[in-house]
Amino acid sequence: xxxxxxxxxxxxxxxxxxxxxxxxxxxxxxxxxxxxxxxxxxxxxxxxxxxxxxxxxxxxxxxxxxxxxxxxxxxxxxxxxxxxxxxxxxxxxxxxxxxxxxxxxxxxxxxxxxxxxxxxxxxxxxxxxxxxxxxxxxxxx
Length: 141
Prior knowledge:
By secondary structure, the chain is an alpha+beta fold. The protein contains four helices and ten strands, in the order βααββββββαββαβ.
């Protein structure tokens, strides 16, 4: 059985966020961390070298059911080019909210935002809450 390579680490989330570039990503990353903390009621954990994750669930790949493992219920990364938001678009209840989120683009399992000011933070909070409510059973993504 193949396991996912991205796993929780002991790395310090605050140190990671403080090292983000450009400088505005530091502030945006810290703001996102606070928003995710408030909605989930939990502290973030670094997943791999660049993902700030909240909670976890059992993942099974739809394209290869042998690929499975734990994955964050939701999270983000303050990447240089764009903010990357994870776990916010794969629940059916999220679809109507995405139209209200603001300016973003989509990847396979994530949402890309140029800057936090481009999106409606109230809608972001709703999307985080939906992702957080995800069950712990294996879920294809």
